[in-house]
Give the backbone structure.
Amino acid sequence: MAVVVVYEGVFDPPHISHMWLAQLVAESGYSKVIVVPSSDKAAALCSHKDKVTDQDSRLLMCRESFKDLHPSIVVSDIAIKLGLVYTVDVVSTLQSLWPSGKDIWYWLCGSDWVKSLSTFHDRKRIEAMAKYLIVEREGFALTSVTNLIMISTGHVLENPIVSNLSSTFIRDRVKNGKLIVPFVAPYVDSFIKKQSLYKE
């Protein structure tokens, strides 16, 4: 029986904290970590900025960022290819394509997202298909998610490197002409420069 983790996100751009969380999950004994960049439609709904980088560029940056990590980590284009908007559709589609129906599924979630889970489209169906795998983010202590864990199936994964690094931080540094090499994969840094992303 495999234990599969779905790691969904906008990844605009992907950075070392994204890479670290996937690596942490893989090293913690989960069988497969599926990184799923959001479609343009989904990204537009959950993003706090006016313009989201196109899905093909985000997918490419993700593939380059995660490719040399733990071998159980894979990047899926399923949300982009099918134009999926909601998490419930991403999880159900992945499960329908999975070879075994007896495996255990988790949906990876930072502790900063916990308060938003109640607003997710068809949340009860998500919880019927997958458990929450919650990892702490700086400023959002795990004690704040206790009630969620008590009322639904879920698991807290201890994170030895708690960080508040965000894609917003990366974009702001680019906009202000500052280096981002310590925070993203070298390819992502080159791609951002080549495509003149995040200048506005």
In short: The beta strands are 3-9, 32-37, 73-75, 104-110, 131-135, 154-157. The CA atoms of residues 45 and 107 lie 19 Å apart. The chain has one domain: 3-164. The two ends are 47 Å apart (CA to CA).
